[in-house]
Amino acid sequence: MLAVPVSLAETRKSDDRPVLSDWSHAGNKEAHHPPAERIFPVDSFGAIANDGRDDSIALQAAIEAAKKSGGGVVYLPEGMYYLDQPVLVTGDQITIRGDGPSRTRLVFRYGKLTDGLHFVYPEAGGTIGPGTWIEARTDPRGLVRFSLFSDDRLIKSQQAAPLASWQQSFALRLQGGRLPGKRTSGSVMLRATAEYEDGTLLEASLPAVLDETMESPPIFPQMVGIGAITFLGARPHGQQTALSHDGKRGDRELTLSTAAHGFRTGSKIELVAPNTERWFREIGCKGPEKPDYRRYHLLVTGTAGERLEIDQPLRLDFPVVDGSFVRRLDPLENAAIESLELEVRSEIPSLNGVVFLNVWACRARDVRVLNAGRHQMLFSGAKWCRLEDCFFRDRRSKGGGTDYVGFQDAYDCLMDNVIAMDMRHGPVVQYSAAGNVIRNSRFFGSDAQWHAGWSNENLFENCLIVSRPETGSYGYGMYATPPDDPGHGPNGPRNVIFHCDVHSPKAGVWLGGMNDGWLFLYNRFVVEDGPGMLVAGPASGHKIIGNVFVLANPGSAGVEFTGAGHTGHSVINNRFYMADAVQVLGGEVSDTVSKFNSTSPYPEAAWPALPEPAVPSLYHWQVDHDGR
User: Is the pTM here over 0.85, yes or no?
Assistant: First the structure.
């Protein structure tokens, strides 16, 4: 835990222990080690700007050449390029670079009938191991059923989802371990069929060699699917090695159940505490949607028998009683996309723009993404990544699970100077996201969200958030899902909101409960209808300090505590501008410290200014003090 500057002394506990988390690792610049710049111009691989033809094959070829060379820059000179197929990056230290978003433009128009049904992975005659990615794709329009066979034995069959669904039913994918029959090396014939409403039956075959002994990291997309450009590392894999002692918050060492764990200095690991009935009773959760909400990515810095030294203190407890374990990570590292625009023109409304899956120390800079389906840009299974100086606007899909700007299953990542217009949720963190920083960014039309799965110790600072329900947001300025939401579950402790400017039709903040130890410091909340904050119980230890609340609705309390189980909250030195003289606090406030707050009439002209804290950035203050 970190010390804090004197100007933030109000955020200390009574015994003088600091309550701020450590965000100095977010977007860790030291993790980026780009190679000597080997340049791979796409025009050397057949791409021709501005000719209206498909350039995806040429771009993919340039990426593969960079991968074989150990990394480099795949360069797209000024002009318009068309991508009729998704592009995949699976090699470390590869940068896709243009001449700037106003000069290098990519148009993703995937979803046509140009290629019919075909296999994407692996190559014909390739070797398939248990972790090998197998995928076939077809046109989704009018699709009824999509099936995959191995030596005429049905392996997988799926019914088509509506085009408007976030499910990408045009892609059928699985891993080689799903193939039955031969358990040793031998030939295999894969066959895919696609049945359509008009009675059309398409078929494609792929010869391959099955090798059950082949060891390869499982490079395979997760449910979030692929984008126009996807940076893809291996999923967590290998033996799950149990902890023999509880991992406690703040620990820099893990004790495993065996010394034969196979990890060494430099190993990358995922630490997991599975969801259990015991823990769900403790947090009142009605889920799960996922098998675990407590995860973290770590670097092993030393080993001694059963013990692993790790590079960062744990942010949560990982108890043995819940079956906590570690497993191996082989992420994609040090890859990037920068200085270009990507526009999605696909007829499939659920497609993503740029996706980073299972990655460490990757980055996106100076990228403009327009009109994507599910996500403009997604970081998932990510560590130490950076998203900077980007712009996102418009979207095709309007349903649930879409249009987010933020991080999921991501750890110690940084978003800085991003503009997002007409998204659904943003900034957003979800599903075990921890230690991430979202700062200096503007979100027009979306609400800020801690959207699911015990997100903890994240920092939002210096952001402008203007929520509008017509974009699909909930209408609150900020929203944290509650424990009784079976699709999302509650969010974890110690998230911090610092010096943000929040405008909303409903309450400025809605916390669903089990949100312990959150800090709201020096923000401005401008609310059309409702209280400044609605805080549901059970919850403890929230500190609401130095904020400005501008409340237009007569009769609304400044901060409303609902439900039971509130303990140890502090509401200190806030200014409330109200339409009438109602109380500062409402609801269950018996164990809440309230002092030095003031009320004033609702302003008829200009809103009161955003508070100015003595420390302009918690993130930079911590970086400057080396996390101490």
Answer: yes
